[in-house]
Amino acid sequence: MQQRVSILDGNTFLVCDRSGDVEPSFDFPTGMFSFDTRFLSTWLLTLDGERLHALSVDDAHSYQTRFFLVPGEPTHYLDAKVSIIRSRSIGGTFTEDLTVLNHSGREMRFQLRLEMGSDFADLFEIKHQRPKKGRTSAQAGENELRLTYRREAFHREAMITSSADAHVDQNGMTWSITVAAHSEWSTCVTATPIIHGARGEDVRAITALGAARGPAVIRDEQEDLVGRAPQLGCDCEPLAGAYRQSLHDLAALRYESITLGVRLLAAGLPWFMTLFGRDSMLTSLQVLPFLPELVPPTILMLAGLQGYRLDDFRDEEPGKILHELRYGETAGFEEQPHSPYYGAADSTPLFVILLDEYERWTGDAALVKQLELPVRAALHWIDTYGDLLGTGYVWYRSRNPETGLENQCWKDSWDAISYADGRLPGFPRATCEIQGYAYDAKRRGARMARLFWNDPEYADRLEREAAALKERFNRDFWIPEKNYYALALDPDGRHVDSLTSNIGHLLWSGIVDESRAALVAEHLLGPRLFSGWGVRTLATDEGRYNPIGYHVGTVWPFDNAFIAWGLSRYGFREEAGRICESMISASRYFDGRLPEAFAGFERHLTDYPVQYPTACSPQAWSAGTPLLLLRVMLGLEPQGEHLIIDPLVPEGMGRVELLDIPGRWGRVDALGRSRTPHDHEHHH
Amino acid sequence: MSQATEEFFASLPARAPAILRAPVTGTLQIDLTTDHRTDHWLVRLSPGRAVVDRARGPADAVWSSSADLFERLAIGTAQSISAVLRNESTFSGNVMLFLVFRQFFPTPPGVRDPRETAREQTGRA
C-alpha cells in the first residue's frame, strides 16, 4: 500500500502521497476534505513537466507538514541542481508555501505547475462511487481559481489563490520563473473550502463559528489543552510517549460543529471525521479524569439531537441517542440517513452512564439537573422501543434495509455477530454488552434521581429493575457448558455462542455475578482470546475467526481499555495490568499512536503488532486508551468528594506519577510504582 | 399560506406542555417564502409554553424555508435537519431554539411502531 501523509484540524483534513501530491482516487479518501465533502481531489506539482520525489518529510505536527523534493525518480536525483520545499498547514484554510531553490552557479528558468481539481465527492461516494447529480465548474481569474459545485441550493466552493503572479487555467496554475544563481523563489498558495448557506454566505461566517486559524493559533490551542491535562512522570518511555501523543491527537480531533457552534470530538481519520454517539461517549469516559471540560459539549449536543419521533429511514425513536451525524450532500439529499442516523442500540444507555460518571468526577450537579428530562427519556427508551420483543432486553433491528446498519452495537460490520459455527443469526439481535450498559444505566439513573432530581421512588424502581435485569441476564445469557456469557440472543431467545471480547464489557458494567467473574477473567486472558498484544474481538477457534477481520479477530485498543477497567472493577488487578502492559508495549510500534485496530496474530509469532490494513488513525477512542489505562493502573476512583488512589503498576514499569488530576477535589497527585521481581518473591 | 401550515401553528400552544421539556427559552422567527411574498411567524418558546404571532422580530434565531417545504415538515413527510444540510432551509442565531422547535414536526404518516413489526415477525405479537 502506498504510504500516505495526513494533516488535520478538526474535521478539515488532507491526505496525500509522500511527495505531497493528490491524484484522483475512488477507493480511498485522498485529497482535502471539510465537513464530509472533498474540496480538492487533484493537487499535483511538476517542475518542467517532471514529477517530484521526496528526500524527506517532516510531519511532526498534526496540522503542518514540510516536504523536501527534487525532480525525477530516486535513481538520478543525487546531483540535483534544483530542489523544492512544500510547506503546508491546515486550519479552516489549506496553505502551501512553494519554494524553488536553485543550487547551481547560474541563473535558471523553470516552469512550475500545480494541477488542481475537485470532484466534490461526498465521503460516502468514495466508498460507493456513482455519478454526481450536481454541476461542477471552474472559473479562472487573476491569480485565482474558483472550483464550484451546485446541486439545487447545495453549493460548495474551493477558492484557490496564489501570492505570486501565475498563469491560471481551469485545471491549475503555472508559474514561469527565473531564479538567480544560488537563489530561491517562492509563492504562497491557499485553498479555502466554502460552504454556502443563506444568501450565498459562508455558513461558518454566519453561524459564529471560528474563522480560519493559522498554524500559530492552532499550536497555541493544542499546547493549551495539553498543558491543562495532568502531568505524567514515569520510567516507562513508551507510556510517556503514548500519553503525549494521545493528548495531541485528542486536541487535533476537536472540531466545530456546523449545527451547534461548539467544539466536538471527531471519531477518526479519514472515514469518521464527524460526531458518533458511541465513539464520542466512550472517548469522553476515557478522558474524564484528564480533560473533563471536553465532555459537556458532547453531552449537550447529543441531548439536543435526541430522537423524538418514529422515522424508519433514520431508525429514529423517541428518547434514542444518535449514532452518527454527517454534514455532506448524501445526508442533505437523504441518500444516506445521517441527518442524524439513530442506528445504535448502545448509545442511549451510554448517554446515562456518561452523565453520571461526569458528575462523579466533577461535581457538576447543574448539568445533571439541566438534563433530567433527556435522561429520563433515554431510560424510558430502554424499556420501550429498546425492548423490541418485550422480553426485558434491548434488541436491535434496522428498519432501513438499504442504507441502515445491520449490527447496531460497537461491532457494527455485517459479519461481526455470529454463532460459534460461523452462521449468522436472524434479527432482532440482543448483544450481551448492551444489556450490561442498560443495567449500569439504570443503577446510575437511580443515583441521579435520588441525589439530584428529588425522586426517590423513581430511584427505587430503577434499582429494582436493574436487580431483576441482572438476575435475568445471568440466567438467560450464561452458557453453562462453555462457562461464559453468550455474545447475543437470537430472535428465538437462543444463545449466539461465540466467545468474544464483549464479555469484558460486562465486567465494566457490573452485571456479572461475582461467582462467575473469575471464569470470565480466565477466558479474557486465555489463549483463545488473548494474543499477547491484547484481547481479540473473536476467539481463535470460532468459525469466523480471522486475525485481520475487522471485528472478527483483530485487537481493538479501546476495547482492551474497557476490558482492563472491568477486570479492575472485579478485583482482577494483575490481569488488568497484563492488558495495560500489552497495549503500552504495542503502542511503541506505532510511535505512541495506537491505531483503531491491529491484527490478532500471536505475539510470539510476529514479535510486533501487525497493522490492520485500513485502520483509521488517529482515532479518538484509541487516543483515549492510554488515558484509561493510566486510570486503571493507578486505581483512580471518585468516592464522594475524594479521589481514591489505589495503584497497582504492572511489573517492570517502574514509577508512574500523575500530577494535578482535576476533579471535585480540586487537583490531586497519584503515585504508583511497580514491584520488582525481588519484591514479588518477598511478598509471595 | 396552506391550511396544513395554519393548523400547525394553531396547534403549538396546546402541544407545548408535552413537547417543550428542555430548559430552553427564546424567540424564533420563521420566514416562509413563496414566489411572491414572505410570511413571518414569531414563536416565543419556553419550557411548556409556546406563544405564536404572525409578526417579525426581534428574535434570537431566524429560520427561513419555502412555504412548500414547511408544509411537508408540518405533515411529517420532510425532515428538518436534512433540509438545512442541503441548504433548502437556513437558520441563523441560537441553534438550540431550532433543535427544540423541530420536535413539533410530526412522525411521517403511516409509520408503524417498530415493536409491533418485530413481534409480528418473530411470532410474539
UniProtKB/TrEMBL annotation, chain A:
Domain (Putative glycogen debranching enzyme N-terminal): residue spans on this chain: 8-189
Domain Mannosylglycerate hydrolase MGH1-like glycoside hydrolase, first and last residues per copy: 349-589
One GO term (biological process): carbohydrate metabolic process
Organism domain of life: Bacteria
InterPro entries: 6-hairpin_glycosidase_sf, 6hp_glycosidase-like_sf, GDE_N_bis, MGH1-like_GH
UniProt-listed SUPFAM superfamilies: Six-hairpin glycosidases
UniProt xrefs under Gene3D superfamilies: 1.50.10.10
Name used for this protein in its record: Glycogen debranching enzyme (Alpha-1,6-glucosidase)
TrEMBL record, chain B:
Name the record gives this protein: SCP-2 sterol transfer family protein
Gene3D superfamilies in UniProt: SCP2 sterol-binding domain
SUPFAM superfamilies: SCP-like
Domain annotation SCP2: ranges: 20-105
Source superkingdom: Bacteria
The species this protein was found in: Micromonospora matsumotoense
InterPro entries: SCP2_sterol-bd_dom, SCP2_sterol-bd_dom_sf
